[in-house]
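Q: For a teaching session next week I want to show students how multiple molecules come together into a single three-dimensional assembly. I've collected the sequence lines for a complex. Could you give me the predicted structure tokens for the whole thing so I can convert them for display?
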Amino acid sequence: MTSPDSQPQIIFSKIGREIQPPVIVDLMARALANPELLSLAAGFTDNAVLPRELVARFAFELTQEGQPDEPLQYGQNQGRTRLRELSCEVIAGHPGEQASAFDSAKMFMTNGSQQALYLAVQALCDFGDIVLVEEPSYFVCLEMLKGLGIRAIGIPCDDAGAIQPEAMEALLRDLDARGERDRVKALYLVSYFCNPSSRSLESDEKRAVAKVLLDGDWQIPVMEDAAYRELYFDTPHAAPSIISMPEFDAFPKLYLGTYTKPFATGLKVGYGYCTHPQWLVKILCIKGHQDFGSAHFNQAIIERVLEEGLYAGHLASIRQHYAHKANVLEAELIAGGLPELGWRWETPKGGLIIWVRAPLETDLRMASDFCQRCIEQGVLYVPGDLCFSSGKPWHCARLASGALPEDRLREAAQRFVAVAKERN
Ligand SMILES: Cc1ncc(COP(=O)(O)O)c(C=O)c1O
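A: Of course. Below is the structure for the complete assembly, covering every listed component.
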């Protein structure tokens, strides 16, 4: 049998039939293809602060005559032993962490933390299963879940993204009453300078979440995504991770971290730290089938940066830069008069994003007049509905301050504000 374009017809799997192109890939491609289209959407970091010298130095050193050949060979499926140890130290070095809680045998290196998340979810979920997420949540994760046929269900949060424990309890009771208890496979939190809300979860909020789960006897795996934890502006966020919080000891825990955003996205090295031995074994089995180890040379470069004690200095050098970029974007939004038009946001304390909320009746979705007008005017943003499991509300937008150089960032913000004024 042949399909209309005269290619033999393939009978695809359920995933193959239902999979849709990820919005993130489209947004990045548009940003790369047309430099005149200023992207407040793409999650790139700033070329101006890429660690060129560090990468050049260690790439050079690692390939010199007489150096071990192993970084240019395949490595371990779980990742380089020393890098796993050093990555434990990175997490343990954050405020409130219990250094003794970390064990490199529970750490695995991945092709970005995105892969760690994907593997973890694959090990847990079947078609139709449920993952609880914040509202809003990381839209690439929401799309990934959808692509795997998994239902993301939003935990009720307030307008700024704070979890509402009582409403969460009610949601869980409702899921139970509908016979869905066994389908709820995990909770996913983006708890440091969240993409997109830019807020961080306080220790009390995390404790309240743990209590709601425990009280309802929901000992489900908890996945904590800390992709932006190192990218604070002035002070680190004080709350320890779920790994160091005894309130979460009853749960299988996975902490996701990365060296992409804080170091170099192009090296695409991330990691997961999993406290549950069987879950970890399953994750590693899937990883073994998928790629039997992430880019070994890239891991070796990062290992050397950490080993030489140069990571902290690099982070210190980029924090002020990103703080400044966020200020520039926010200042333009204010100077353009967005607050007077009823737009709201919280000033970020870290990360690469400002999460703006227009007056409720404003439609900012991809197909909206607002979004199309922005594209005509040469500016892209991430429509906020993509960050909600139900696709609603429609009046939010994710504006990224990280990638564009300062003058273009100003210009992009001005174009965005001009459309907001026009549509007012
Ligand atoms: C919240 C969050 N988690 C995970 C990732 C994945 O990052 P990477 O795979 O580059 O480590 C991103 C990337 O934008 C992110 O924003």
